[in-house]
Amino acid sequence: MTKIQTVTNAIINQGILPLYYNADETVTIDILKSLYKAGIRAVEYTSRGESALSNFTKMVEIRNAEMPEMLLGIGTIKNLQQAEEYYKVGADFFISPGFVAEVAAFLIPKDVLYSPGCMTPTEIITAEAAGVTFIKLFPGNALGAGFMSAIKDVFPNLKFMPTGGVDTTKESIESWFKAGVSAVGMGSKLVSKDLMAAKDYATIENETKKVLEIIQALK
């Protein structure tokens, strides 16, 4: 099995891709451990701050030592330099807010999953032509589940995951899965700034378990 397929399967099997960023290295690691304890085996860390690369490097180190089956992805990749930096430190998969041709050309031949954000059929066609197999529908709250329903038959060979606007409720999650997505990306609705500030890792773990249970019940 290819590495791209292995990562795709892991995300689809859990049905959710949690994503977060925190400037503090210790908080970053503690959240990762909380998600792992909840049953998560693939996580997206967001490259949005000055400490993102060093924090992610530490995440890889801790993962290798304590949770070898965890897949670590990096998000908000907007250019080739970022992709090269995170590839060097061991990122398992890469996610962008939009399609970046140079990033696709760098990662896909290396058998590394690249999931770009798309919000039009034209963008999806462009990504598919470049070898992308896993599309991030972004921003999900602007597109809505109806968009997924309308396009799914046009792209039978692609997997889709909305990010942005997906709530932790059964109603929100179910609407997307019924529309045809393979997983949902979930950031601040799951790992909120308030929970991170309070270092309330128990709630993060429990809320994640609840979402996993909702998704498994829907499958």
Order of helices and strands: HEHEHEHEHEHEHHEHEHH
Which overall shape is indicated by the principal axes computed on the Cα atoms? globular
Residue stretches low in confidence (pLDDT < 50, at least 5 long) are: none
Q: Helical region count? A: 11
Summarize the amount of helix as a percent range: 40-55%
Structure in words:
- This protein has 219 residues and is an alpha/beta fold.
- The longest helix has 18 residues, at 201-218.
- It has helices spanning 3-14, 25-38, 52-66, 80-88, 101-107, 121-129, 140-143, 145-151, 170-179, 193-198, 201-218, and strands at 16-20, 42-46, 71-75, 93-96, 113-118, 134-137, 159-162, 184-186.
- The protein is built from eleven helices and eight strands.
- β1 (16-20), α2 (25-38) and β2 form a beta-alpha-beta unit.
- Belongs to the KHG/KDPG aldolase family.
- It comes from Chryseobacterium zhengzhouense.
- InterPro entries: Aldlse_KDPG_KHG, Aldolase_TIM.
- This is Bifunctional 4-hydroxy-2-oxoglutarate aldolase/2-dehydro-3-deoxy-phosphogluconate aldolase.
Write the layout of secondary structure elements.
Blueprint: H1 3-14, E1 16-20, H2 25-38, E2 42-46, H3 52-66, E3 71-75, H4 80-88, E4 93-96, H5 101-107, E5 113-118, H6 121-129, E6 134-137, H7 140-143, H8 145-151, E7 159-162, H9 170-179, E8 184-186, H10 193-198, H11 201-218
Parallel strand pairs: 1-2, 1-8, 2-3, 3-4, 4-5, 5-6, 6-7
Helix pairs in contact: 2-3, 2-11, 8-9, 9-11
Subunit structure: Homotrimer.
Keywords: Carbohydrate metabolism, Lyase
Pathway: Carbohydrate acid metabolism
